[in-house]
Amino acid sequence: MDFSHSILFGFHVALQPINLFYCLCGVTIGTLVGVLPGLGPVATISLLLPIAFHANPVSFTILLAGIYYGAMYGGSTTSILVNIPGEAASVITCLDGYQMARQGKAGPALGISAFGSFIGGTAGVIGLMLLAPPLAKMALKFGPPEYVSLILLSLVILSYITRGSMAKALMMTAIGLILGCIGMDIMATVPRFTYGILVLQDGIGLVPVVMGLFGISEVLLNIEEGLTCQEVFKTAIKRLLPNLREWKDSIGSIFRGSVLGFFLGILPGGGAVVASFLSYALEKKVSKTPEKFGTGMIEGVAGPETANNAAASGAFIPMLTLGIPSNPVTAILLGALIMQGVQPGPLLLKQAPDIFWGVISSMYIGNVMLLILNLPLIGIWVKVLKVPYFILFPLIFLFCLIGVYSINSSVGDVVIMNIFGIVGYFMKKYDYEGAPLIVALVLGPMFETALRQSLSLSNGDFTIFFSRVISLGLMTATGLLLVLAAFGRKRLPSEVIS
Amino acid sequence: MNTPIKRLDRDSSIFCLFLSVFIGIESYRLDLGRLSNPGPGFMPFCGAVLLAFFSLVVLIPAIKRETGAKQIGEGFTPQIRWNKFILPLIALFGYALSMERLGLSLTTLFFTAFLLKVIEPQKWVVVIFGSILATAGVYLLFKVFLRVPLPSGIFGI
Questions:
Q1: Interchain contact B13–A (C-beta under 8 A)
Q2: Which terminus of chain A has fewer CB atoms gathered within 10 Å of its CB, N or C?
Q3: First to last CA, chain A
Q4: Does A187 touch chain B (CB under 8 A)?
Q5: Angle, alpha carbons A264-A267-A268 (nearest 5°)
Q6: Could you tell me whether strands B37-38 and B33-34 are parallel, antiparallel, or unpaired per DSSP bridges?
Q7: Chain B nearest CA to A352, separation (Å)
Q8: What integer pLDDT is reported at residue A417 of this predicted model?
Q9: Domain boundaries along the sequence of chain B
């Protein structure tokens, strides 16, 4: 299949009524969770995993992808109107978005954020279409040593860019790798860390861990902190379409945000949050009036909102072509696809072109849906913000409990989820990030197999990782990153942190 | 001055250090194998070594800072409102352990009522209608719409 045929085939798959339905559900749910503070895309995707399992793999992936990039759209609404980010990638939008709302420019802020998101998302999808096939072809040359080096690099990048201490992120990575070892060792057929507990024989399931760490723990914290109904800034939202002047001010930011976001999304370990922060820093740097940032500059909304959507699309490249997730969302997607019997990676293009091209095309359609949905429905999203938390939290708990039980009809899985809920609660209290743990848990078994195969191939000689060009390059990048971290270089520009 | 964070780091890294020692011993017992043919304990052992190393990286500066902090009487432990933490957990574990005996509907009804009355206290009308609505909702979604095989329990509902 040549490129144009592949794209047409992708649209043929994505435009099937059932897939359109799942795409619409995904982007709507995504926008909704983006709007609601305290429930991010990771928690929602994990909440909906058990339900999504009932769909076929193509529709399933379309739904979950829709939630991810939909949340990027929705997150900006609360940032602009309430000064509370709906999810992490919209934190930076609060700075200028909320100020614009206070100056009576909530409409253009929401408008440019929706258009920027659309343009960024579309640019990301086009980049995905162009870059993914050649990358998948290159990945066919990868052997076990290359996979070891690549996974190592992904884990180190993820720890490097994670908020807070890198050492703590690497501790979480180590715990994720250890958790991935629980269950039957495939190579030696020996049970590990099971202690005769039946539910641990097949290993710790990804869904209970994710739902515990991101769903249950989040609600526990919110109950404790007494999350109340948000007070929406009272302003008339008029003129959602930005005027010519506002477009002129934003177009450069949108272009830069698209490119920066897409390439940061591709990086193993990169993602929407970093993309939005760095885009803001970049906009401040290139601006003629950097001192005005934080007072309601439209560039400070357009750049980050574009970048986080472009990154959300870019993040699918390593997952689909290499089978390496770049963040927790794609890690969950990867794990879920494997559970559905689909192995993302270089062979996905040949073995399941419907998933590959169907999902990519659906992302384009989803971006159009979001643009149509977001602008006229902003009034409804604002009302959603007023739903009291005492209604939401029992429902989230019930979704977690019944959802996780429904996968294997196992009470053991529910208990594991509750335990990880407690673990996640304390991780947040003690300032540890869950993302490295989840990514390491998903990549752990793959990493172990590749590592043991590589060492068997080389007769225990570690130079195998440095004697092959691709592996050497990846190892060098990993080493450089560790050196950078060791010498205490700040991982985000200081002006962004401050 | 970031003493509070350092104190948190000290406690959590000591816990992780103990955890790594436990994992290391268990991995050793599983058989590490040889480098040319790694055994089932090899990977978890590597994980334990990594965990121990980074726990120390976090712990040592935290202890140094802590020594200074004590002299000026500073300290910090995470603020936990235990009733708001323990009560939902009792409900969650109670749900898990009773759902197969009592069945989905009854467990969901009691669970929601408990949350609405005890965790975030509401009026009885809200509690009763809220829990009935939530139960009907999850029943329709999971059992009727998605046809998920969920337990009916001793009462068959």
A1: yes
A2: C
A3: 50
A4: yes
A5: 140
A6: antiparallel
A7: 26
A8: 93
A9: 3-71, 82-145
Residue with tokens 């000591």: B14
pLDDT tens digits for range B109-141: 999 999 999 888 889 999 999 999 999 988 888
The answer to whether B94 faces chain A, any CB pair under 8 Å, is no
Which of the residues B3, B5, B12, B150 would you substitute to probe the A interface, choosing the one with the greatest number of A C-beta atoms within 10 Å?
B12
- Whether residue A234 has pLDDT greater than 80: no
Closest Cα to residue A423, out of A209, A272, A203? Answer: A209
**Helix (H/G/I), strand (E/B), else coil: A233:** coil
Closest chain B residue by Cα to residue A176: B47
Q: CB distance from A451 to chain B under 8 Å?
A: yes
The closest CB to that of A168, out of B38, B58, B111, belongs to B58
**Bridge partners of residue A183, in order along the sequence:** A192
Give the model's pLDDT for residue B5: 58
> How much is the ipTM here?
0.90
Tell me which chain B residue has its CA closest to the CA of residue A183. Answer: B40
Whole-number CA gyration radius for chain B:
24
**Which of the 8 DSSP states describes residue A185?**
E
User: Residues A320-359, buried b or exposed e (16+ Cβ, 10 A)?
Assistant: bbbbbbbbbbbbbbbbbbbebebebbbebbeebebbbbbb
Q: For residue A427, which of A271, A151, A209, A277 has the smallest C-alpha distance?
A: A209
Mean pLDDT of the A127-141 span: 82
Contacts with B51 from chain A: Cβ below 8 Å: 171, 174-175, 178
Query: Which of B54, B93, B99, B145 is the mutation pick for testing A, counting most A CBs within 10 A?
Result: B54
Whether A401 sits inside 8 A of B85 (CB atoms) is no
Q: Are A130 and A266 in contact (CB under 8 A)?
A: no
The span from the CA of A343 to the CA of A442, in Å, is 13
Sign of the CA dihedral B18, B20, B25, B26? positive
Which of B44, B91, B97 minimises the CB distance to A192?
Answer: B44
Which uninterrupted H or E stretch holds B37? strand B37-38
The reported pTM is: 0.81
pLDDT confidence tier of residue A313, bands split at 50, 70 and 90:
confident
User: Please, is A15 exposed, middle or buried when counting C-beta atoms within 10 Å of its C-beta (0-12, 13-18, 19+)?
Assistant: middle
- CB contact, 8 Å: A432 with chain B? yes
* Interacting residues of A483 by C-beta distance below 8 A, sequence separation 6+: none
In chain A, residues 80-119 whose CB comes closer than 8 Å to chain B: none
> Looking at CA atoms only, how far is residue B71 from chain A in angstroms?
23
